[in-house]
Automatic annotation (TrEMBL):
Name by which UniProt lists this protein: DUF302 domain-containing protein
Ranges where the DUF302 domain occurs: 39-100
CDD domains named in the record: DUF302
InterPro entries linked: DUF302, TT1751-like_sf
Domain of life: Bacteria
Source organism phylogeny: Bacteria, Pseudomonadati, Bacteroidota, Flavobacteriia, Flavobacteriales
Pfam families: DUF302 (PF03625)
PANTHER family linked to this entry: INNER MEMBRANE OR EXPORTED, SLR5037 PROTEIN
């Protein structure tokens, strides 16, 4: 695990394709609900600043997230789940998200390994589907 708790993957597609695939995977999962989408590039542009393409999608599954917050309410700082899609200065598109096992340690979650492993697997599958060429 990265000491920062961030998992990043390189996409084999352009920014828009990666983001749309990510969104589609989440929308087509009956257990997940999109809470919000933010376009950081557009927000920067609105105040005259430049930023490479950068969007974040927030989504959740209350059946998995609620028990974690019942265990440690500070987990609400990191829920709902978020996946960041961005293009770096070299034009490489990446997806990044918080490692649930890092969040376990950050929030002192106990006795929830099954849920945390399920979330970790889901995030891995979702992001793999988004970056696949």
């Amino acid at each position: 695990m990265n000491e920062t708790g961030i998992i990043s993957k390189i996409s084999h597609q352009d920014f828009d394709t990666t983001y749309q695939k990510l969104k589609g995977v989440i929308e087509n999962n009956p257990n997940l609900k999109i809470i919000a989408e933010l376009n950081h590039q557009a927000n920067a542009s609105s105040v005259g600043l430049e930023l490479n393409p950068t969007k974040i999608i927030m989504f959740g599954n209350p059946n998995l997230g609620t028990p974690l917050m019942q265990n440690s309410q500070t987990m609400g700082l990191d829920l709902p789940q978020k996946i960041l899609v961005y293009q770096d200065n070299e034009g490489v598109v990446k997806v990044s998200y918080n490692n649930p096992l890092y969040l376990r340690d950050r929030h002192s979650i106990t006795n929830q390994e099954g849920i945390l492993n399920k979330i970790a697997g889901a995030l891995d599958n979702i992001t793999n589907a988004a970056i696949a060429g």
